[in-house]
Request: fold
Amino acid sequence: MDELNKKDQDAAINAADLPAARMQHVFVPEEPPPFLSLAERDRRHKMIRERMTASGIDVLILPPNANRWEQCMADSRYVTGIGGFGTETLTIFPRDREPTAYLFNRSSWWRAVQQWIPDVRDGRNRWGRNITEHLKEIGFKGGTIGLSGLGGLPRTPDGIVPHRMVQAIMAIPGVKLIDATPLVQELRSIKSPEEVATLERSAAIADRMVAAMVRLARPGNTERQVYAAMVEAMIAEGGDLPALMIFASGTGVSHGQFVPTARVLKAGDLIANEIEARYAGYGAQTVAPLSLGKPEPAVAEAGRVALAAFEAVRSEMKPGATILGLMRTYQRTTETEGKGRFRVGFPLMHARGLGDEVPVVLDHDDLQKQGDIVLAENMVFVLKPRAISADGHAQVQLGDTVCVTPGGGRRLGRRELGLIVVG
Reply:
């Protein structure tokens, strides 16, 4: 293609800066991406405004960080519903106005396919400029701005906001900038019935991904072939990308990796995994260990002990239970069922939802800090106990997404849980 001349270049630049509402010929799909109800949107916006008032926040900024499979953009998606497939969404939420969403581009498409946020604009990743210009547009004369992600998240402790964005906000006359990370994150920790139903849909997709793995896991196929079939099942069932997937194969393998390889599967292999499916941004996870052929007796026993631990902990996942109490049940069950021949491992469980959820207990230090956290109804976790033989030679981890209910944890997935044996 010939280079644009100077006049055409200028026209192209000007067109890129036009408000998205003036762009023409937007293709609207017959089946738009999934969104939760407008009633759910209104519920969230009301709660956020109440918390902004209590915290003295005039404007809430939710960053567009798509890091960690978009987990770091959970607050923005919680408010706007917009995300998936690498869509970066900056949300500006004045307490007395409706939120505005800035994307890198293609905002006109997003405006056409959803009703949650009427004001969606192209931002071209000029996030600091987008914030300062929008605040000027709405007549902001100074006050308190809350910036989510400034203080860090459980898996991103150094924060998730660009330095230049912070500089741009701090340069606004009369601004007091505070960390607002807990404001939305704490709301996200307890799911509404509609959110639980969405996670159940995600869990159903994860079950289909496990079925695809079982179908393709045969000697002669490669890890990449199995992985590809699982991703295909996820997309075909309406799931989002990116999604976390951990996968590895080999003799005695116990932990997966993030990168599938061209390794050819062999009889006697074990497949270790953690499988996530995301629907409307909500990630449910399942852990489905698989043996190609009859497993060694110690591995089979580890699978049985891990399943017993799963059921024992699940039954106690009721409102009022503590993380430390559940960990003790895990340890006691593993000791009893394994007759002293198996020990536990971390993590036992961590919260699931739109992103880097709380509470999360990944190691002993987390348990010391968060062991007293009390479970509430409609918290959702991935529960994934691991049974490790005393000599460390055999270990199996299995699990599924579980919702806290008064009657104990309710599995959101429906596949049969346990060590899968193929062949």
Observations:
- The chain has two domains: 16-188, 193-422.
- The CA atoms of residues 388 and 395 lie 4 Å apart.
- Residues 193-216 form the longest helix (24 residues).
